[in-house]
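task queued by scheduler; priority normal; single chain, no ligands, no partner chains; default sampling; output format set to structure tokens
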Amino acid sequence: MKYLFALLTILCFQGVYAQSVYTVDYESQADIKVFVVDYESQCDLKVFKQKYESNADGNEGNWYFCAYESQSDKTIFFVDYESQSNLKIFFVEYESQAGWKNSAKKHLLY
């Protein structure tokens, strides 16, 4: 029984912190509304686009953009104005640059 409970616990929490995202067409479909800022100093999260889903683990700004909504952990919608967003992001060139600048917003991606 202990093994069954442990297995179920692992399966339930597997992928909780994953950063597989899908861009939806309508704001009402999104879990998070995102605005891309022009400067790193303005962002809440610095995001690096991963080429492979297996590299997009943890809640540290390594995102993998899925081809299908059913494969994603979070759905996002890119808004036109900063005031409409829940999260401001800045795309970085290197994986080592990714991370949170405003850790108070981390809960949005759990």
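post-processing summary
- The radius of gyration is 15 Å.
- The chain has one helix and seven strands.
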